[in-house]
Design goal:
single chain, alpha+beta, 8 helices, 4 strands, globular
C-alpha cells in the first residue's frame, strides 16, 4: 500500500509555540533535566531476567518538539498499518535511513552546526524510546572526534533529532521510514532480539 501522504519538515512556529512552552505527558525540557544519560528500558517484565532481558532493550532518548510533531504525522499516516509502527520503530527507522545514505556523519554534524544550534535551546523535548542497534550508531557519534574539544558537545537528543529531521527531508520520507523500520524489525527477529 502506498501513501499519498508526504512529510515535509517545515516547523510551523505558530502551532508549535504553545507546545514548546507547555510540556505534556512524557515531554521533558532539557534545560531543566538533571541527567542527560540515556535510560535503558527492557521490553520484558522485570521477573524475567537474564538473556531475555538483554535481547529486548530500548534506550530512552528525547526529540525536539518540532521533529516530534512530524513523527506524530508519520504515526497517524494511513500507510502505517499491518503492523502499526510505534515511536521506537519510527525513530529507529529514521536513524537507519540517515545512516544508510551518503556521508551520514557529515550530514548529521552539518545539520547540528547549521540548524539545530541556532534554535532556542530551551525548546521542549518529547521523551521516547529507540532500539539499541540504532542507539549504538548515535553513541558512536557522541564519542567521535567531531564531538570532542574544541568542537561543541552534542548530546543524544541532538543526534536523535538530527536523524529524524534529515530522514523526513528525504523524498517519499514516510514510505522510506516505514520500510527501514520494518527492515529493523526483521533484523532484530533474525538475530533473536525481539
Amino acid at each position: 500500500m502506498t501513501s499519498s501522504f508526504e512529510v515535509k519538515y517545515q516547523p510551523d512556529d505558530g502551532k508549535l509555540a504553545l507546545l514548546r512552552h507547555q510540556p505534556t505527558g512524557r515531554e521533558m525540557d532539557t534545560m531543566r533535566s538533571t541527567i542527560d544519560l540515556p535510560h535503558h528500558r527492557p521490553i520484558i517484565a522485570s521477573g524475567q531476567q537474564g538473556e531475555a532481558q538483554r535481547r529486548g532493550d530500548t534506550v530512552t532518548t528525547r526529540i525536539w518538539i518540532d521533529e516530534f510533531v512530524a513523527l506524530e504525522a508519520l504515526y497517524s499516516d494511513a500507510a502505517n498499518c499491518s503492523p502499526k509502527l510505534r515511536y521506537p520503530d519510527l525513530i529507529s527507522g529514521c536513524v537507519s535511513l540517515v545512516f544508510d545514505g551518503l556521508d551520514p556523519v557529515n550530514r548529521i554534524f552539518s545539520f547540528l552546526y547549521t540548524t539545530l544550534v541556532l534554535r532556542d535551546q530551551e525548546t521542549a523535548r518529547r521523551q521516547e524510546d529507540m532500539w539499541r542497534p540504532q542507539y549504538l550508531l548515535l553513541l558512536a557519534l557522541q564519542k567521535s572526534e567531531q564531538n570532542r574539544h574544541p568542537h561543541p558537545q552534542f548530546k543524544l537528543d541532538h543526534f536523535t533529532t538530527a536523524c529524524v529531521a534529515l530522514a523526513l527531508q528525504e523524498p517519499r520520507a514516510a514510505q522510506k521510514v516505514f520500510e527501514y523500520a520494518r527492515r529493523n524489525i526483521a533484523q532484530r527477529a533474525a538475530a533473536g532480539v525481539l
